[in-house]
Write a structure and sequence with these properties.
Number of strands: 0
Largest sheet: none
Length: 105
């Protein structure tokens, strides 16, 4: 899991990955209302409450919600990897500082 690349490059790549996954998750979250409205409009001239009930009971709605949750989960995992890389850097930095201090003794 470790890389020979500098920590800055590892962090940059993990940051870009997280950013892309987070953008995809936010796009689904923001599109939820539009998706619902489009599906309700496709049902024609029926009461809003009934249209909403039918759409939210549909397999398409369930799939959309699952995609949205899965996208957010992937983004969260990428954020954890990003923070893990940051933690590894600080651990490495601390170890190097300890080595330098020991050599002075």
């Amino acid at each position: 899991m470790t890389s020979n690349a500098p920590f800055s490059e590892q962090f940059r790549l993990k940051g870009l990955e997280w950013s892309d996954l987070d953008a995809a998750a936010r796009m689904l979250e923001e599109g939820k209302t539009t998706f619902l409205a489009q599906r309700m409009a496709a049902l024609g001239d029926i009461p809003v409450s009934r249209a909403e009930k039918e759409v939210k009971a549909s397999p398409e709605w369930a799939d959309y919600i699952k995609k949205m949750v899965n996208a957010k989960t992937l983004a969260n995992r990428a954020k954890i990897e990003l923070e893990f890389t940051r933690m590894r850097y600080w651990e490495h930095s601390g170890t190097e500082a300890n080595k330098r201090a020991e050599m002075k003794l």
